[in-house]
């Protein structure tokens, strides 16, 4: 470890399965990347078999960072829970951490040092269909226990802070908002040009969970497809709403103009954003709504449901619609695609300005301030 470190931060990354945990992967990597230059700290990352290599590739060159791999695969959730609660406390104690931060909803209940946990949202409470009954019960027990055990709870929006205070046994003063941001790649100038000879496309990036409301987008696109030349590109992994989505696609008249993709590299995904004619997020529940910020930073107009955190995060950038209004999304799609070049450019400029107010450096500073405060406070 280098000289000058004044405290020791442990980071519990046992939840992290590369390519499988959605926005929490972006949050973990980008917050750490921005935090390390600011923190006068030694950092120990507690890893699993799946993420140890990728995390070493990101942070292995920093002499202040060390890695403690727990030899298990997080795809086995029972193993992950067991290792987090039984093996991790001893590893944290042996490493001598002053503070332990768990960025993925759950925490190490028996670690002796002060702890912070990031609870991104309360989706499992509002949309229990997103999980199996056993998965819901397990999540409820572990998230509630983490909120009880950790002195500080971090979250990404004022909406999520209100949800946590409303649905978990915590006082408001323990919940701090640290925000999130889009990666720099979304603002890069395209170097591959727009796709030649292919129709323009609408883009949606979301895994097929019920709360993402993807069948409504398929139906709305199908209803307006006769009036527009666009394709619809859906990017995301199958979730517990996959059956409903597959049924909506199968019954669509224009299903030949629907394309599904998954497993994209970050640069490929950023390019897909930049070339889209429109980004659409019909989700009924988002704790932050990172794809909206990514789209606006990429210079793409956005249509979004007026639900949960989306109006807070997007502000005046997106065109909002009411997902409970019949044909509301159809009208929003046609309105956005009919914008004159000047109006479209104004929307893009508004979105870029809004997205620019979110930076990973600010997220890192807010997170670091919260973690340092734990070092300064006596107690468990």
Q: Can you tell me about this structure?
A:
It is a single chain. The protein is of the alpha/beta class and 380 residues long. It folds into two domains: 7-181 and 359-376, Glycogen Phosphorylase B (Rossmann fold); 184-356, Rossmann fold (3-Layer(aba) Sandwich), CATH 3.40.50. It is built from 14 helices and 13 strands. The protein has helices spanning 23-35, 49-59, 77-95, 123-126, 133-149, 158-167, 214-224, 242-250, 266-275, 290-297, 310-314, 328-337, 341-356, 360-376, and strands spanning 7-12, 41-47, 65-69, 99-102, 115-118, 152-155, 175-177, 201-205, 231-235, 258-261, 278-281, 302-305, 319-321. The strands form two sheets. It has a seven-stranded parallel β-sheet, with helices on both faces. α6 (158-167) links the parallel β6 (152-155) and β7 (175-177). The radius of gyration is 21 Å and the shape is globular. The mean pLDDT is 95.
How are the SSEs ordered, and which strands pair?
Blueprint: E1 7-12, H1 23-35, E2 41-47, H2 49-59, E3 65-69, H3 77-95, E4 99-102, E5 115-118, H4 123-126, H5 133-149, E6 152-155, H6 158-167, E7 175-177, E8 201-205, H7 214-224, E9 231-235, H8 242-250, E10 258-261, H9 266-275, E11 278-281, H10 290-297, E12 302-305, H11 310-314, E13 319-321, H12 328-337, H13 341-356, H14 360-376
Parallel strand pairs: 1-2, 1-4, 2-3, 4-5, 5-6, 6-7, 8-9, 8-11, 9-10, 11-12, 12-13
Helix pairs in contact: 1-14, 7-8, 7-12, 10-13
């Amino acid at each position: 470890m280098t000289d000058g470190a004044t405290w020791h931060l442990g980071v519990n990354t046992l939840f992290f399965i590369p390519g499988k945990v959605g926005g929490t992967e972006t949050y973990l990597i980008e917050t750490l990347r921005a935090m390390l230059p600011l923190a006068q700290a030694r950092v120990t990352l507690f890893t699993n078999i799946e993420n140890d290599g990728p995390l070493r590739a990101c942070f292995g060159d920093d002499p202040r960072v060390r890695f403690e791999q727990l030899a298990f695969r997080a795809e086995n959730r029972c193993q992950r829970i067991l290792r987090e609660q039984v093996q991790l406390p001893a590893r944290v104690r042996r490493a001598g951490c002053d503070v332990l931060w768990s960025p993925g909803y759950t925490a190490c209940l028996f670690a002796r040092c002060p702890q912070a946990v990031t609870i991104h949202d309360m989706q499992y409470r509002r949309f229990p269909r997103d999980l199996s009954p056993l998965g819901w019960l397990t999540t409820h027990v572990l998230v509630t226990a983490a909120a009880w055990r950790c002195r500080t709870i971090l979250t990404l929006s004022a909406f999520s802070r209100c949800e946590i205070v409303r649905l978990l046994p915590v006082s408001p003063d323990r919940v701090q908002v640290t925000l999130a941001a889009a990666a720099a790649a979304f603002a890069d100038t395209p170097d591959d040009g727009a796709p030649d000879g292919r129709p323009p496309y609408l883009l949606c990036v979301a895994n097929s969970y019920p709360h993402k409301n993807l069948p409504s987008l398929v139906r709305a696109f199908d209803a307006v497809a006769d009036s527009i030349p666009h394709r619809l590109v859906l990017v995301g992994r199958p979730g517990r709403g996959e059956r409903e989505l597959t049924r909506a696609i199968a019954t669509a008249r224009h299903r030949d103009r629907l394309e599904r993709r998954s497993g994209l590299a970050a640069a490929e995904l950023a390019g897909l954003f930049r070339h889209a004619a429109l980004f659409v997020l019909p989700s009924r529940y988002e704790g932050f709504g990172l794809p909206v910020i990514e789209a606006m930073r990429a210079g793409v107009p956005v249509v979004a449901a007026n639900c949960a955190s989306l109006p807070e995060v997007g502000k005046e950038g997106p065109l909002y619609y009411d997902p409970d209004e019949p044909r509301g999304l159809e009208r929003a799609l046609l309105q956005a695609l009919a914008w004159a070049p000047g109006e479209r450019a104004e929307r893009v400029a508004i979105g870029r300005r809004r997205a620019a107010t979110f930076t990973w450096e600010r997220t890192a500073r807010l997170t670091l301030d919260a973690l340092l405060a734990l070092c300064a406070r006596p107690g468990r």
